[in-house]
Write a structure and sequence with these properties.
Blueprint lengths: L3 E10 L3 E2 L5 E15 L2 E14 L2 H6 L6 E10 L7 E10 L4
Parallel strand pairs: 4-6
Antiparallel strand pairs: 1-3, 1-5, 2-3, 3-4, 5-6
């Protein structure tokens, strides 16, 4: 199974572009910050993740407020057919409402 769920915020975003088939695409960079326990030791995690969204969700992502925290759900895949670098392909976005 290849499923990723990441609480993050968008720090960079490209304008919507379209594939030759007419599918809208938005590329972005996410930032994630958290603390996890690894081998019984607390570890601080801070990372940026290259991401892409295609289809209807790209319209929502294109106007989503930069810096706003959300849950991004999707999968990892190589950036291109011959690349070894992974990109997070976002298939769902869930807003986080903090009270």
């Amino acid at each position: 199974m290849n499923r990723v769920w990441l609480e993050a915020s968008i720090i960079e975003r490209s304008p919507i572009r379209y594939t030759p088939a007419g599918v809208p695409i938005v590329q972005c960079t996410l930032v994630h910050r958290s603390e996890v326990i690894e081998a019984g030791v607390r570890r601080k995690v801070e990372m940026t993740v290259p991401a892409v969204v295609a289809g209807e969700l790209s319209g929502l992502l294109a106007c989503y407020e930069l810096g706003r925290l959300a849950n991004f759900i999707g999968f990892l895949a190589p950036r291109s057919l011959k690349a070894h670098t992974l990109t997070f392909h976002i298939t769902e976005l869930q807003e986080i409402h903090k009270d």
